[in-house]
Amino acid sequence: MSDEDLKGIEQHAIPGPGSCGGMYTANTMSSAFEALGMSLPYSSTMANPHDEKLNSAKESAAALMHAVKVDLKPRDIVTREAIENAVAVIMATGGSTNAVLHFLAIAHAAGVPWSIDDFERVRKKVPVICDLKPSGKYMAVHLHQAGGIPQVMKVLLKAGLLHGHCMTITGKTVAENLADVRVFDDEQSALQAILAGKIKAGDVMVLRYLGPKGGPGMPEMLAPTGALIGAGLGESVGLITDGRFSGGTWGMVVGHVAPEAAAGGNIAFVREGDSITIDSHQLLLQLNVSEAELAERKKGWQPPAPRYTRGVQAKFAFNASSASKGAVLDLY
User: Fold this and answer.
1) CA-based angle 298:221:188, to the nearest 5?
2) 249, 221 in Cβ contact below 8 A?
3) Residue 323 reports pLDDT greater than 70
4) Contact in structure between 176 and 232 (CB atoms under 8 Å)
5) How far apart are CA 241 and CA 255, in angstroms?
6) Which one from 115, 189, 246, 324 is the annotated catalytic residue?
7) Distance (Å, rounded) from C-alpha 210 to C-alpha 254?
8) With the CA atoms of 66, 145, 133 and 168 taken in that order, what torsion angle do they form, in degrees rounded to the nearest 10?
9) What's the longest Cα–Cα distance across the chain?
């Protein structure tokens, strides 16, 4: 084989920067450090050539400066339970055995009691839930598109296999980082968040005050849903709205939510960081907060001021019925 042929093979086999694409040692350790709490959510499975990696680097620098200001140190994060979280994610993703060597050394450096027997203890209770190379079918970038390490951690946390109270470099706990609802009271701010790269795989966006009364007129959400598709998030981000959609919209989207926010429907009381379950098979759309908490949020609620106070749109907002009734104007 000539040098030219060898160079051609190398350039096509490894076409860009970044680590090997499977759940090999590099991706195992970066994923484990994310689960440990020492790197930002979603950062470990981003593809190096993509723009979001540059944004993540900026966000990481900001997180580091904040940690310095609040005196948040590695030993505040790297606890025995945090290491158990990291090892649980290693087991769930089918990671490299090199992690055993590294985490024994990490635990030693952090002054945390952790032995080789602890890996087997975690392995016995955590199943492999990812089909990743080298033994499986998919690459790390596919895992990222499906929600990344936070999606794996959500599954483990729900199953009682993670310690949600562990502190992370964000200044929030693991459980707080995994809360996935993003709330927007208008279409424009939601669109800006998508375009700015602030919406990540696994998030659920709630766009409200866009129903028949709140819009008014129930505008279609083609711009934000189109932006999600353009960002490669069409299959990994949910969107819930009391507005409507274009015929060109597709993905995990739920529209026409009624009663709408402007009428005091439950969508008005969703908060940033809540958890929402969307299950199309069970016809389930569920805000995962207690009835007592929901009742507390409703106390003293008043609808926001109408966007229009005169003219046809004001009349429409005043007279419009629920989307579940066709938003007709004469349902007296």
Assistant:
1) 75
2) yes
3) yes
4) no
5) 5
6) 246
7) 13
8) 20
9) 84
